[in-house]
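Feature request, filed as a ticket because there's no other form

It would be nice if the structure record came with a short human-readable summary line next to the tokens. Right now we just get the raw output. Example of a typical job, pasted below so the devs can see what we mean:
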Amino acid sequence: MMEFAKEVDARGLNCPMPILRCKKGLSEIEATQVLKVMATDKGAVKDFNAFCQQTGHELLHLDSVDGVFTFYIKKRSS
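Raw output as currently delivered:
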């Protein structure tokens, strides 16, 4: 299991709420710390990949188990 500083549960929420929850979570942790986000929105994989490319945060790992996507995102250093 990967270490993380904060966990965001966006299960049951549709776009754009998982990304908005992720942004809020990232604002609450320090640079280079890891945020864990859980989402069930089928578009989340594409959305989080695009979000990380556009913002410079690093998508470290993605799991998918029983329709729940778990993202580990490393906050970019300022």
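Something like this underneath would help us a lot:
The chain has one domain: 6-74.
The two ends are 26 Å apart (CA to CA).
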